[in-house]
Specification:
Layout: E1 4-10, E2 14-21, E3 28-31, H1 35-48, E4 51-58, H2 65-83, E5 92-99, E6 102-109, E7 115-119, E8 126-127, E9 130-131, H3 134-146, E10 149-156, H4 160-179
Parallel strand pairs: 3-4, 7-10
Antiparallel strand pairs: 1-2, 2-4, 5-6, 6-10, 8-9
Length: 197
């Protein structure tokens, strides 16, 4: 069965259409109106070996927050839908990734329960015209809607662009590991028999 999902979200603040294929080839079609965010989603897609399409129109005249957070909500919902009952997946993922002077580790459990630990401080408030704090807001929205445990740890880093890029790449690799098929465990990887809650 194809592990795909299409999410449409319409509010007074944003209009978003997101399509995800977990078994893709790293193809990205991203248009959010936020250039740096588009770049982060493109490299997330490439390193995760997913196919991801995002079309977002948001109230950028206010700021970028609603657009970034709502795309995170949609991506989290798409992950839940595409994974179904999660039978046959590895469930857990982890990765440590260097990005020049930066080193980031991320760990994930597709447990059906939400928790985020985000230990990464950015040296600058802005990356171009992008608010650095939106990196955490995005992943909070993803984790809350995917219903997963997500831990992000910055070991060291000086450049805010590198830190953000390392986080997105590292989480792509972590998620890629967690959603992979595990040939030794064809059923749901839980003694409870479910990963819904």
């Amino acid at each position: 069965m194809p592990r795909t999902a299409r999410i449409e979200r319409r509010t007074a603040e944003t209009e978003i259409t997101l399509e995800l294929n977990l078994d893709g080839e790293g193809r990205a079609e991203i248009q959010t109106g936020v250039g740096f965010f588009d770049h982060m989603l493109e490299l997330f897609t490439k390193h995760g070996a997913f196919d991801l399409s995002v079309q977002a129109n948001g109230d950028l005249h206010v700021d970028q927050h609603h657009t970034v957070e709502d795309v995170g909500i949609c991506l989290g919902q798409a992950l839940r839908e595409a994974l179904g009952d999660k039978a046959g997946i590895r469930r857990y993922g982890h990765f440590t990734l260097p990005m020049e002077e930066t080193l980031v580790s991320t760990t994930l459990d597709l447990s059906g329960r939400y928790f985020l630990v985000f230990h990464a401080e950015f040296p600058s408030e802005k990356i171009g015209d992008f608010d650095s704090e939106l990196v955490e807001d995005f992943w909070q929205a993803v984790a809350a809607n995917a219903l997963c445990n997500l831990h992000v740890s910055l070991h060291h880093g000086r450049n805010s662009h590198h830190i953000s890029e390392a986080i997105f790449k590292c989480l792509a690799r972590t998620l890629r590991m967690a959603v992979e098929h595990d040939p030794r465990m064809p059923g749901v990887p839980s003694t409870k028999g479910t990963l819904d809650s």
